Amino acid sequence: MKSFCIVTNKIKDPKLKYTAMVRKRLEELGAAVTADIDDKYECLVVLGGDGTIIDAVRAVKKKSVTVVGINLGHLGFLSSVEKNEIDKALTALVEDRFELENREMIEAGVERGEAYYASAEGRDKKRHTAERYEFVALNDVVINRMGYSGMITTDVTVNKSLVSTYFGDGVIISTPTGSTGYNLSAGGPIVTPEAQLMVITPICPHSLSMRSVVVSASDRIDLKLDLSRLKTEAYAVLSIDGLEAVKLYHGDRVFVKCSARRVKLVRFKDKDFFRLLYMKLGEQR
């Protein structure tokens, strides 16, 4: 590859030391470098952590983007380059000595239902005008309750067939990329990165029988919210890749499906997913 766009997390690289190092080395190797994410380039070079990569990928409007991450953060599951590997990795990148991992993205939509608000006099019912929101995620889409009292009831259907009714704090819909994040913390399975599927994982389920469900990348997931058990704040929150996106009310419907957008992560031959997994999670093997 001969043309690159550099995106930097300035909190992780406040003096732009590593950014300047990357730019200088790429130019020494004869590559063109830009900082305009909407410009034309072959590869996005992201300096920061996983959050920086996710933000950069979502900001790119192209249907397919190739990304190499340089880890300036802590875990860095998505990054393939550590700070002491920059020179070696950039040389391999320009000389096309790398592999690409195709990563699924998912898109979520919200269709507004009827909203119920708790009040001192009792539960008042107020109807919202019809609203629709759409989002795209690399890691996960999460429905979470607000406040500390009561549970969310979520009817989960896949291709119009009822899978389960979850009672608890919410539900995570994860990509394979996001399986090592919130999904893993909530007891969901670890999935190899290039698998074509989605994982549905309940958050703090109030039943021993409620477990994660794995569905195909071609499936459509629909979730209907019942917030009548919430005693104080009668709304939940839909989060996209860890960022709050929109409030959800009683009767709202959320759909999730795989997106036409793809991310191609650069990987080098000396990198192994399971070795990285054990290393990042602080385990030995």
Description:
By secondary structure, the chain is of the alpha+beta class. It has 2 domains: 3-98 and 268-280, Probable inorganic polyphosphate/atp-NAD kinase, domain 1 (Rossmann fold), CATH 3.40.50.10330; 106-260, Probable inorganic polyphosphate/atp-NAD kinase, domain 2 (Tumour Suppressor Smad4, Sandwich). It contains 5 helices and 18 strands. The chain has helices spanning 17-28, 50-59, 86-94, 182-185, 273-280; strands at residues 3-8, 32-34, 43-48, 64-71, 99-111, 114-119, 122-127, 132-137, 140-145, 152-158, 161-168, 170-174, 197-203, 213-216, 220-226, 235-240, 243-249, 253-267. The chain is elongated. It starts with a strand and ends in a 5-residue tail after the last helix. Residues 115-129 have low confidence and may be disordered.
Short characterization:
With 285 residues, the chain is an alpha+beta fold.
Give the arrangement of secondary structure elements:
Elements: E1 3-8, H1 17-28, E2 32-34, E3 43-48, H2 50-59, E4 64-71, H3 86-94, E5 99-111, E6 114-119, E7 122-127, E8 132-137, E9 140-145, E10 152-158, E11 161-168, E12 170-174, H4 182-185, E13 197-203, E14 213-216, E15 220-226, E16 235-240, E17 243-249, E18 253-267, H5 273-280
Parallel strand pairs: 1-2, 1-3, 3-4, 4-18
Antiparallel strand pairs: 5-8, 5-18, 6-7, 9-12, 9-16, 10-11, 10-15, 12-13, 13-14, 15-18, 16-17
